[in-house]
Design a protein that fits this description.
Elements (H helix, E strand, L loop, with lengths): L2 H19 L5 H19 L5 E8 L4 H5 L12 H13 L7 E5 L2 H10 L7 E4 L15 H7 L1 H9 L12 H19 L3 E6 L1 H11 L18 E7 L4 E6 L2 E2 L2
Parallel strand pairs: 1-4, 2-3, 2-4
Antiparallel strand pairs: 1-5, 5-6, 6-7
Helix pairs in contact: 1-2, 4-5, 6-7, 8-9
Length: 252
C-alpha cells in the first residue's frame, strides 16, 4: 500500500467512524482522533522520495588486526597506523556536515570516531546495535589456531557465512537483522539527512549485502572493507536503498 492510499484510508475512517461519534464525545474518542491526526502528520512528513545519505566507516587498524586475533566484541585498541588512518579520513571528510554520527560502543570504533572528529565538534551517539558479530569462544584466539582446530567452521565463517553456527557466537542472519533494524530506526528520524555510522567490517558488510538484495551466501563475494574504508548508501524511508560508494570506490 502506498502512502497516498494510507492517507485516503485514514480520511475515510475519520469521516465514516470518528466524526459521527463526536456528538457522543468523550475522552476516548477525542484521544483516538488526536492519535489518527498524529499518524497522518507523520506519514505526510516522509515522502516517497525522501532518502538518508548514510556514510559507513569501518574502524582503523587495531593491535589484534596486526596479531591476527579474532576480535568479535572483545576490546582491542587502534595502532599508530589505525590512528593515522582515522585522522586522514577525518581530513578527507572535513567538507561534509553530518547531521548525526552514530558509533559502535566498542573501544576501537570509539577511538576511530574521536580521531575522525578530533578538530570538529560533533554529537556522537554510541549504540550497542552497531557492535561487531559476537564470536563467542573464538574471541581472542589466533586465526591460524582456529583454522587448524576447527577447519570446517572456519571455512564457513570466511566462505559460507550462511552456514556459520558456532555455539556462543552470533550467526550472520542475526547480525544482519540487528543492523537493519538499527538503520530503519535511524532513517525514521533522519530522512533527508546526512548521517555517519562508525562500525565494523563484518556487520557493515552484512548490511551492504542486504541493501544490494544479495543472499548471505554471497556476502563474501563482496570486496573487502579495509580499515577506515568509507562507503555511502542512500537509504529510503522503508529501509531499502542503493550503494553509491563501496570502500572508497564509486558504484555505477
Amino acid at each position: 500500500m502506498c502512502l497516498e492510499e494510507v492517507h485516503v484510508l485514514l480520511l475515510w475512517f475519520k469521516v465514516s467512524t470518528i466524526f459521527p461519534l463526536l456528538r457522543y464525545i468523550n475522552y476516548q474518542s477525542l484521544w483516538l482522533l488526536v492519535y489518527l491526526e498524529n499518524i497522518d502528520r507523520d506519514l505526510r512528513s516522509i515522502e516517497p522520495g525522501d532518502i538518508m545519505e548514510l556514510h559507513l566507516i569501518r574502524h582503523g587498524q587495531t593491535n589484534w588486526n596486526v596479531q591476527r586475533r579474532i576480535q568479535g566484541q572483545s576490546e582491542s585498541i587502534l595502532t599508530d597506523l589505525g590512528i593515522h588512518q582515522a585522522q586522514v579520513l577525518g581530513e578527507r571528510l572535513g567538507h561534509l556536515d553530518f547531521d548525526q554520527v552514530f558509533c559502535s560502543t566498542s573501544l576501537r570504533t570509539r577511538q576511530t570516531a574521536e580521531h575522525i572528529f578530533k578538530h570538529r565538534d560533533f554529537n556522537i551517539e554510541y549504540l550497542d546495535s552497531l557492535r561487531e558479530i559476537g564470536m563467542g569462544p573464538w574471541e581472542g584466539r589466533l586465526h591460524d589456531a582456529v583454522a587448524r582446530d576447527e577447519p570446517e567452521l572456519y571455512k564457513h565463517f570466511f566462505h559460507e557465512p550462511h552456514l556459520f553456527n558456532v555455539p556462543g557466537a552470533e550467526t550472520f542472519a542475526q547480525i544482519q537483522q540487528r543492523i537493519v533494524t538499527a538503520v530503519k530506526t535511524i532513517v525514521a528520524t533522519f530522512h533527508q539527512r546526512q548521517v555517519m555510522m562508525v562500525s565494523h567490517g563484518t556487520i557493515l558488510k552484512s548490511f551492504l549485502c542486504y541493501i544490494q538484495q544479495r543472499p548471505l551466501s554471497e556476502m563474501r563475494d563482496l570486496p573487502q572493507l579495509h580499515n577506515c574504508s568509507h562507503s555511502i548508501v542512500e537509504v529510503n524511508a522503508d529501509g531499502s536503498g542503493r550503494v553509491v560508494q563501496y570502500a572508497d570506490q564509486p558504484v555505477e
